[in-house]
Amino acid sequence: MKTKIAEYRKKAHLTQKQAAEALGIGERLFQSYEYGTVLPSVATGIRIAKLLKTTVEELYPDEE
User: Fold this and answer.
1) 4 three-class SS
2) What are phi and psi of 51, to 5 degrees?
3) pTM of the model
4) What is the C-alpha to C-alpha distance for residues 10 and 52, in angstroms, rounded to an integer?
5) pLDDT for 2-49, tens place per residue?
6) Could you say which of 1, 2, 4, 8 would form a disulfide bridge with 52 (CB–CB 3.0 to 4.6 Å)?
7) Cβ pair 39, 3 in contact under 8 A
């Protein structure tokens, strides 16, 4: 699944490590979310969106 997490993380001037630490998760797990190989729970998705000052819908756009 394609995500826009990397795009929004870069706009927020955060490294993957910084974002992971802010969320209290491992860097590899954050990378998995960013690359779309693992989907976060709803609660974690909301936390990622809040950290990156956007919405879950923006991070995971519909693929049509």
Assistant:
1) coil
2) -60, -40
3) 0.90
4) 9
5) 899 999 999 999 999 999 999 999 999 999 999 999 999 999 999 999
6) 8
7) no
Q: Look at the block and give the residue holding tokens 């923006």.
A: 58
What is 18-34 written as a DSSP string?
Answer: HHHHHHTS-HHHHHHHH
- The pair of structure tokens assigned to 12 is 């927020």
CB 17 within 8 A of CB 10: no
What sign does the dihedral 48-21-40-4 (CA atoms) show?
A: positive
Instruction: Give residue 11's Cα distance to chain centre.
Output: 12
Residue type, 21: E
Structure token pair of residue 40: 């976060």
Residue 12's nearest CA partner among 57, 62, 50, 60 is: 50
Provide the 8-state DSSP code for 1.
-
Confidence of residue 63 (pLDDT cuts 50, 70, 90): low
